[in-house]
């Protein structure tokens, strides 16, 4: 038997519809003790499948999936391509996951999925620009960010306090500030090329409306969050939100592609992979119906 991952669900055999919406869903690759990342296990069955919007038009929604390596360099090199028109995606390791339909007008929605701890799925509202002091799976750190105290031995690098909406993460900010001051670690995050973007970016998706809809369908293991962990999950979240704005600006458009990050738990803690996949389908259909 081949060691290659099992193929995704078969694509819809219906002819391509010019009114179809196009969605990219990403999951992450191996990470720590996850040889098969639960996020990718839930995402990959969606590849080259077609859903429908929830309104009367029932527009087709074609889904493309992509597995992203858990490295800062991969996120920085791949994410801008998600948002250009037409999108630029890398060749997948497995040809079964090749992109079959290239949306010349770009993706209509981009959904990123990553794994967190046991418990409910989390709708991440916010991405932060700095504070990424953990090494990735290759043992590498992201770039340092210049501060006003660079070159001052008595200066302390500090992280900007969170907004009112982000007070949930205030303890983490305090911890980051204290540890940075103690070890005099450099601030790390988004530097060159991202100077014009603010310290925090927020999803344009109506997360509260999405959660309400999911609960109405009977799915209750879903909560909002403003603390995605300041690691690769939050890193791709901020990067994608920024690149969505950059792409809209370059196109001279006021419409920014909706971008969202969801955290899922490890398999069967408490949700099965199928339950997460089913929920992702609901998320895609709901967002594309707004």
From TrEMBL:
| One Gene Ontology biological process | proteolysis
This entry's Gene Ontology molecular function terms read: cysteine-type peptidase activity
**Superkingdom, natural source:** Eukaryota
UniProt KW Iron keyword:
no
Family under the similarity heading: Belongs to the peptidase C15 family.
Question: Which keywords are on file for this protein?
Answer: Hydrolase, Protease, Thiol protease
Protein name (record): Peptidase C15, pyroglutamyl peptidase I-like protein
Q: Which InterPro entries match?
A: Peptidase_C15-like (IPR016125), Peptidase_C15-like_sf (IPR036440)
């Amino acid at each position: 038997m081949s060691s290659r991952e099992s193929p995704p669900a078969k694509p819809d055999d219906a002819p391509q519809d010019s009114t179809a919406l196009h969605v990219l869903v990403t999951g992450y690759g191996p990470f720590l003790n996850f040889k098969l990342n639960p996020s990718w296990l839930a995402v990959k069955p969606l590849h080259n499948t077609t859903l429908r919007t929830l309104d009367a038009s029932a527009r087709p929604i074609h889904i493309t999936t992509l597995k992203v390596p858990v490295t800062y360099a991969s996120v920085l090199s791949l994410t801008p391509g998600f948002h250009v028109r037409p999108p630029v995606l890398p060749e997948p390791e497995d040809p079964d996951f090749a992109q079959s339909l290239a949306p010349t007008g770009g993706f209509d929605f981009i959904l990123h999925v990553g794994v967190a701890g046991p418990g409910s799925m989390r709708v991440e509202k916010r991405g932060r620009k700095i504070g990424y002091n953990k090494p990735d799976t290759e043992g590498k750190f992201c770039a340092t960010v210049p501060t006003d105290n660079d070159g001052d031995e008595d200066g302390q690098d500090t992280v900007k306090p969170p907004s009112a909406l982000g007070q949930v993460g205030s303890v983490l900010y305090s911890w980051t500030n204290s540890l940075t001051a103690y070890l005099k670690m450099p601030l790390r995050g988004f530097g060159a090329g991202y100077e014009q973007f603010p310290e925090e970016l927020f999803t344009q998706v109506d997360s509260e409306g999405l959660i309400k809809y999911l609960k109405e369908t009977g799915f209750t293991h879903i909560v909002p969050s403003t603390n995605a962990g300041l690691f690769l999950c939050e890193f791709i979240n901020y990067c994608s939100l920024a690149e969505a704005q950059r792409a809209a600006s370059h196109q001279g458009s006021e419409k920014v592609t909706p971008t969202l990050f969801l955290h899922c738990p490890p398999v069967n803690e408490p949700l099965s992979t199928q339950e997460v996949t089913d929920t992702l389908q609901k998320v895609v259909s709901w967002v594309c119906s707004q």
